[in-house]
C-alpha cells in the first residue's frame, strides 16, 4: 500500500486514491514513424528492478496526473513531480545518485 | 449490514437542498480570474485545498486550475454568464454543475464523533492538525468519490455524485450508527 | 485433575459466576475467565482432536499461540469455527463445540488413524494418492475433502456488523506489555501522535505474572500508574482487544479490534479493522515459550510451563494437583515456584542441564522442590490425560529410568521472540546463539518510502529476557523511531538473574526412532520429529519445501510453537547450522482475522455503490426489471402482469416502432471539451474529422486507443466555436474523461483545452417513434422542432413543456428520435410529463434490451458487443468514419501496422439462421478441419444475436473471415450443444436500409 505525495495538492495520498499509469517519459511516435520506433513506443518498457519513473493519477483527489521515481524493489520514493516535465528531473537524479552511487539513467 | 432500519444514529445525516455549484477551470494566477470570482462571491482566491465562505457564497480550491464556486442555486446561470463575459479573453471553462452532485450535512454531538464517523469511510487523515475547519479534502468515501470539509468542529459537508447519493447516505448512516462510536478523535 | 483454587487469580472476579456450555454440557466459570481457564477450572482438559491422527488434544498455551484448543463458537448466524479458547473471553451464555471428531470428543472413530500412524508418514498424500489416475477425481479427492479442514464453515448469513477505521499516527506501538507501555510513555512525552494496541483485554503482558517489581511497586501497580499517566496524554490512544495483524509497505498496518466478542449482547460492530498509516512502528510483541520435544509431549496435561503459571496467577486455576516441570532454562523454575506457592505438589523439576545454577534454581531448591539436573523426560505416559513421566539421563537413549507420577507437566524449551510483524514487510532476522532464537536484525529493517527503516523492536520481541533490558530497549526504540533523544528515568527493576539456556531440541539426546515418532513438533498438524527427519532424508533441504511436505507450521497456528523446534531438528538432520536453514516466511495476519472485518461496512445495501439515474424511482414504481450496466442499474424492460421478459421486450419495440417509445438515456456519458484548441484536440481523439463540425450540428464519431483498437463511440455536438459536447457510451464516461485528461496533461499540455465530465448534471430522455414530434409539440416548445428547422443530426436549446432543455436529433433506433437533456433535478418531472402527455399515442417506456434489439435491426454497433479490445473500426465496416485527410489521430499509426491492414481479418456482417431462429450468443463460425488440439477450426464468431420483433425472426451480427466478400454464403455455426446450425451471411442492416424512418 503505497503512499505518494501529489505534487499539485500536496496531499500524501493512499494508493487506493491513485491510479497507476505505467512508465513515464515515453516519447510518442505517430504516423510516419518506423516500425522499430513505433514498436518501442507502444510495447517496449524498462520493467526495472530498481528506480522506475512512472505515471500516477490522483484519481480520487484533484484528478491530475503526476510522475514519480520509485524503486520497484525497496519501494523507496525519490520524489514526485508534475506530469508536464519532459525530462527526468536533475534534482531527483541527484537524489538517487546520492544514495546509490552506481545508479544511472537507462 | 443488510437492514439499515435497525440502526439508531449518533451522528445525524441529511441531504441539503440543491446547492448552486459552478466549476471554473482557468489559470488561477490570473488577476482577471480572481477579480471575476470576487465579484460573485466577495471572496479571494483560496489557497490550495482551502474552502472559503461568506454568507450564501463560497469558493473551494479543487486543483491548481480549478475552483468550485458556491452560490444560491437560482443564481447559477447568471453567474456562469458573467464569468464567460468577464473571462472572454482568457481560456477558461465555467459550468453550472449544481445538478451533478448531492450535498450532505453531517452533524455530530462532539467534534471527535464527527471525525470518527468520517474516518471509518475515508482514508483521509482527519486529525485536526492535518484537516482543520475550512479545508476541503477530495478523496473517496468507501467506494465512491467524495469531497468533505468541516464547516465547524461538529459539522461537515460532504459532496458526492448524484447517482450514488443513496449509497453515500446509507454509508454515513451505517458509520454514524450507535454502538459504532470509536472514541479515537 | 485441573481445578480452581480458593486463592489467587488477579484477573477474575470470584463474586460473579458466568454460565456457559461446552459440547452441550452446562458449565460455570467466573467473570474475567477466558474460555480456556473456565474449561480447566471444570477439569475439561480434553478439548479437541488433532488434524491427522485424531489424537486427544488438551490446552497447551494461554494465549494467541494455542494450537490445539480450537472450538466452534456460537450457533446459526453467529457461528464461527476455529476459535482459540485461550483468546476467547468468557461471557454469559457462551456456547462452544469441540472440533475434528466423530461421533464425539471422547469416542472418536478417526483415532484409527493414530494406530495407522506408521503408514501415514510425512508426504503420505503425495506418495499415495497418485495411482491409478482416474481414482483421483472420483475416489481420493472426495475422501480427502471430507476429512480435510478443522472447523465447519458457517452456513447462515452473518448477523453481525463490522467496520473499518482509518488512523494516521506518528508512532504505532504493537503490544501493551511493559515495553510497549514504556515506549508509549516516552513517545507521548515527545508529543508524538501515538497509538498503542494490545491484543488481550489486559495491559502489562507477562510482568505481573512473573512477579517483577518496578520502581518499588508491584508490576500491577506500576502498570496502573503508567496507564494513568498515558490517559492524561491527549496525543496517545490506548486500545485493548486490538491485535496488530499485519505490517505492510510505507507504514501501512492493520489492527484487528474485537469490539464485542466478549460482550455479544451489546449492539455495536463486532470487529473493527484499523487501517493505520504510521510514520514509524514499534513492535513490542513479546515472546512465546517453546515446547520441548519428548515422547508423548502431546498428551493432554502436558502444557507450556508459562501457561501453567498464567492459569495459576491470572485465573486461580491449577492444571493439575501434582506437577512436573521440564525446562532447559531458568524461567521454567518460575513456574515451579508459582505452583509450589499455590499449594500444588511439585514432584520435580527436570532440567537437562547438568550443572545449571542461578537465583531461581536456588529459590526452588530452598522451597524444597526436587531438582533433577542432567535429566530428561524419556516419555510422558497416559492417554486422554498424562499420568506420569518416565525420566532418564539427557545423554542416553531413554530406555531405562524411573516413573514420576503426575497429572500435569509444564515444559519450557526457551523463548522465541514474536518477530512476525517485523518480518511481514521484509525485516530480516539474525540467529541469537546464546538464547537459541531468531530475533530482528536492526541492520536490515523493513524500509519505508523514505528509504529508512520504519519498524523498531522493543522488549522480549527483541530477544530481551529481563524486564530491565526490555524497558531500556523500549526507550532506545522510541529514540531511534522518532529521531529524538529520550530522557525519562526508568524504574528500578527487582528481578532474578537468569542463567544460560541449553539448546536442547530433543530429549533424551539419543532417543531411538520409536520415541522420535512420538515427539510432537506441531500439535495441530501432527508433525513429529521423525517426520521432519524423514523429509530431510528424502532430500528436502529448503525449509519452505519441508513445511509444505510435512505440513509443519501450517493452518491456523502458522508455526508459532513449532517453528524453531522444527528448524532445529531439520538443521540437525541436514547437519547444517540453524541460521543456514533459515525460517519460513511470516505472512499477515498474525493470527486469523474474521472475513467480516476484512469486508468492513461493505455488505447489504452498501456492498458497492449502485448508481441510480434521476428517473430511477419511477422505474422501480413501474415494475422495471433491472440489469447492471457497470455500477448503474438500468431497466432491462418493464414487464406487465403475466408478461415474461421476451413478451415485454417485444411489446416495447412494437410500440416504439409503431407509435412512441421512451428511454431513460441519462447514463450516457457527457463530457465538455472547451478551448481555443478544442477542435485540434477532438481531431486527435476521434478517427474522423470533428473540427469541421458546425455549431448546432452533431456527428457520430469513433475513438481508438493508441493501439488502434476501437474503445468508444458516440455522437459529438458542437455547442459553439470553442466548445464540444462529447457523448460516450454508458460505461465509457469516466474512463474516456480520464483518457482525455491523460493526453492533455501528459502529452499535449500545450493545447489550450479544458474538459469536464458533466454526465450526472443532466437527465437525458430519448423520445422515439413516428409520433415523437407530435408529443413534443403537444407539450409545447418555444423552438421550432420541425424537420426543416431541426433536421436529423442537429441540436438546439429549447424550452419544452416549461423545461429548459437541449434537444438532439439523433437516433440509435432508426426511428424519428429526439434525445432531450434537462437538468438532473428536473429529470423525473420531465419524464412524468412526457408519459402523461404521450398517453394518447400509447407511449411505452422501453429498456436496454429494446434499445439493443432496435440498434441491431439497424446494424449499429455496440461497444463491448462488436468490440472486445482487439477490433479496429475497419473490421466493422466503419472506414467511412476514418479520416484520410488527417495527418494524425490516436491509433492512426497502429492501424498502419502490417497485420492491422491485412485483408485477412475477421469483418462484420449480418447473419440469418436458415430456420429463422435466434443464433446462440458467441457461437463460432466453423471452418473445415481440426486444429492441433482436435478442435474445430473457426473462421468467425457471433457478436450480437436477438429475436427481432419487427422482422419476426432471429437476426445476428458476426465477425467473419473476409465476411463482406461472402454475401449470401451459408456457413455452419456451433449450437453450444455439440451440434451445428446453418446461417446465411447478409447485410448488417436488417431494417429500413435507406433510413427513411429517422429522416422525417
Would you spell out the secondary-structure blueprint of this structure?
The complex is a heterotrimer of chains A (106), B (185) and C (1000).
Chain A: E1 3-5, E2 12-14, E3 19-23, H1 35-42, E4 51-57, E5 65-71, E6 77-82, H2 90-99
Antiparallel strand pairs in A: 1-2, 3-4, 4-5, 5-6
Chain B: E1 12-15, E2 20-26, H1 31-41, E3 51-54, E4 57-63, E5 66-71, H2 76-86, E6 92-96, E7 101-107, H3 111-119, E8 137-141, E9 144-152, E10 155-161, H4 165-175
Helix pairs in contact in B: 1-2
Chain C: E1 3-4, E2 13-22, E3 25-31, H1 35-41, E4 46-49, E5 56-58, E6 70-73, E7 80-84, E8 94-98, H2 112-115, H3 124-128, H4 134-147, E9 162-174, H5 178-189, E10 194-197, H6 207-210, E11 213-214, E12 217-218, H7 219-231, E13 236-239, E14 242-247, E15 252-258, E16 271-283, E17 287-289, E18 302-304, H8 305-315, E19 317-318, E20 322-327, H9 331-341, E21 345-351, H10 359-366, E22 371-373, E23 375-382, E24 386-393, E25 403-405, E26 408-412, E27 415-417, H11 420-424, E28 429-432, E29 437-440, E30 455-457, H12 467-482, E31 493-494, H13 513-516, E32 520-522, E33 527-528, H14 529-537, H15 543-550, H16 563-573, H17 578-581, H18 595-599, H19 616-621, E34 625-629, E35 632-637, H20 645-658, E36 661-664, E37 669-674, H21 678-685, E38 698-704, E39 710-720, E40 723-728, H22 733-746, E41 754-757, E42 762-768, H23 772-779, E43 795-800, E44 803-808, E45 817-823, H24 827-837, E46 844-845, H25 848-857, H26 892-895, E47 906-913, E48 924-930, E49 936-948, E50 953-961, E51 970-974, E52 980-986
Parallel strand pairs in C: 2-8, 9-10, 9-16, 10-13, 16-30, 18-26, 20-21, 20-26, 21-22, 36-46
Antiparallel strand pairs in C: 1-19, 2-3, 4-5, 6-7, 6-8, 11-12, 11-31, 14-15, 15-16, 17-27, 23-24, 24-25, 28-29, 32-33, 34-35, 36-42, 37-40, 37-41, 38-39, 39-40, 42-45, 43-44, 44-45, 47-50, 47-52, 48-49, 49-50, 51-52
Helix pairs in contact in C: 5-7, 5-12, 8-9, 9-10, 14-16, 20-25
In short:
The complex is a heterotrimer of chains A (106), B (185) and C (1000). Chain A is of the alpha+beta class and 106 residues long.
